[in-house]
Amino acid sequence: MRLRQQRLAWRRWVKPEAAMNLMPGGLGEDPISLIIGLPGLLASAVLLPVWLIELALRLLLAPVAAALRLTSVIPYRLELYRKGRLTGTYTPRGRRELVRLRNRLAGRDAVAA
């Protein structure tokens, strides 16, 4: 079991891995592979700056999101993974409910093991 807590202001929207999946292996070994890899290069050129802007905004707004979570204005976000697969998402409001939920999930997993 692995329990992940979202730390930054929001979940990631821009995923540069999508552009990397378009890239063929052995890019640039011959002219044809460069032509085949051109869509991946163009997607990377577009996604990388957008991803960097989003990352900077998430980092800048992380302290604001942390303060809002501590005051129960916005919920925390917990994701429970078992055997590498997402099995549950929880949104407790407030620090006390977050700790209670973590302890309950950890206790349930200890009993299951």
Keyword list:
single chain; transmembrane helix; 3 helices; 113 residues; transmembrane; 3-stranded antiparallel β-sheet
Q: Tell me the major beta sheet.
A: 3 strands, antiparallel
Question: What is the helix content?
Answer: 55-70%
The DSSP helix count reads 3
In round numbers, the mean pLDDT is 81
Q: Tell me the radius of gyration.
A: 20 Å
Shape, please? elongated
- What's the order of the H and E elements? EHHEEH
* Unreliable sequence segments: none
Secondary-structure-derived class: alpha+beta
**Alpha-carbon distance between the termini?**
10 Å
Strand content: 5-15%
Let me know the number of strands: 3
Biggest sheet: strand arrangement: 1-2-3
